[in-house]
Amino acid sequence: MLVYNGNLCNIEELSTLNDDALYQLMVENENDYKIYVSDEAIPLSYNDFQEKLKYWFNGGRNYQFLISDVKYNQIIGTIFFYLFNPQEFNINCSVFFIPRVRTSLIVAEAIIATCLSIQTQLKVNFINFSVYTENQKMHVIAKKIGAISIGTKTSLINPMRNVVLYSLPIQNLKEKFRNF
């Protein structure tokens, strides 16, 4: 279980001991979660949510982390990794942060720390992710961390929306943030 105590954020791996905090984060930020992560409905009860987590992890989700703000000791986001491909040395990633911190350095610290940890654990060379076309703030962050745009496609969850596909070479991340 990853436990990271950083300058701006703390990171812990999702487990049955803390999954209620993730559920609360999703419920309290339901509209933003639908806009930035998935149009899929948030489960109506905590028990339904636990079943959904089992489904996600049985369907290819490998790791999920809760991010908390050091200053306020509040859950501010989540980062999850899925569809690990050991032959291609890559994994997919998705992130969600509450509005208050989206443009802050907390997001960068959390993304960098989790990506470097996953690289160490799984020996991946690339972390792939998609961003809804209208999520301009995340496009800026993607470019700042060294991600490369590799195309666009229709969202699997909502065919009325498009996503930009990115690939983040871990070597780029290590070079940009070697003193991190």
Description:
The protein has helices at residues 19-28, 30-36, 46-58, 105-122, 136-144, 170-176, and strands spanning 3-5, 9-13, 61-69, 74-85, 90-97, 126-132, 148-154, 162-169. It is α+β, with helices and mostly antiparallel strands. It has a single domain, classed as Aminopeptidase (3-Layer(aba) Sandwich), CATH 3.40.630. It has an eight-stranded mixed sheet with strand order 1-2-3-4-5-6-8-7, with helices on both faces. β7 (148-154) and β8 (162-169) form a beta hairpin. It is globular. The relative contact order is 0.15. The model has no long low-confidence stretch (mean pLDDT 90).
Overview in brief:
The chain is an alpha+beta fold.
What structural keywords apply?
180 residues; alpha+beta; Aminopeptidase; 6 helices; 8 strands; 36% helix
Write the layout of secondary structure elements.
Elements (H helix, E strand, L loop, with lengths): L2 E3 L3 E5 L5 H10 L1 H7 L9 H13 L2 E9 L4 E12 L4 E8 L7 H18 L3 E7 L3 H9 L3 E7 L7 E8 H7 L4
Parallel strand pairs: 5-6
Antiparallel strand pairs: 1-2, 2-3, 3-4, 4-5, 6-8, 7-8
Structural class: alpha+beta
Please list the strands of the largest sheet in the order they lie side by side. 1-2-3-4-5-6-8-7
CATH class: Alpha Beta
Identify the CATH architecture. 3-Layer(aba) Sandwich
Please identify which CATH superfamily we are dealing with. Gcn5-related N-acetyltransferase (GNAT)
CATH topology: Aminopeptidase
Low-confidence stretches: none
Count of discrete structural domains:
1
**Total of helices:** 6
Question: β content, as a range?
Answer: 25-35%
Oligomer: single chain
Would you tell me the overall average pLDDT? 90
SSE pattern: EEHHHEEEHEHEEH
Helix content: 25-40%
CA-atom Rg in angstroms: 15 Å
Shape descriptor: globular
Total strands: the figure is 8
Q: Biggest sheet: strands, sense, closure? A: 8 strands, mixed
